[in-house]
Specification:
By secondary structure, the protein is α+β, with helices and mostly antiparallel strands. The chain has one domain: Arc Repressor Mutant, subunit A (Orthogonal Bundle). It is built from 4 helices and 3 strands. A 3-stranded antiparallel sheet has the order 1-3-2. Strand 2 and strand 3 form a beta hairpin. Helix 1 packs across helix 4. The longest helix has 19 residues. The N and C termini lie far apart (33 Å).
């Protein structure tokens, strides 16, 4: 007998929400790339592309120093995350999943 695990795929909006939520959780100290990769369950290539897009949109900020690269959420990113979470909650209340 073979048991298969079904892992739901996330869409792009959910991935952005996850990345912003994780960076927000780390606050002003920021989150390093390795930890963000693990917590967001993303490949390095995918995170690199996404972080570039989020920085261009003004939602994330990159801080480098002491051989580390850290990501921090911006005020605009916090605003986006708040709106996303409200929408996610409203959709859930109707039985819908993003």
């Amino acid at each position: 007998m073979r048991i298969e695990l079904v892992i739901p795929y996330r869409n792009g909006i959910q991935i952005v929400g996850d990345v912003l939520r994780i960076t927000n959780d780390f606050g002003i100290e920021g989150v390093n790339v390795t930890l963000l990769l693990r917590k967001a369950n993303l490949s390095y290539k995918r995170l690199s592309k996404l972080s570039t897009e989020l920085m261009s949109a003004g939602l994330l900020e990159e801080k480098s120093g002491e051989g580390k690269r850290l990501y921090l959420i911006t005020d605009k990113g916090k605003e986006y995350l708040k709106t996303y979470e409200q929408f996610e909650s409203m959709a859930s209340s109707f039985g819908l999943e993003l």
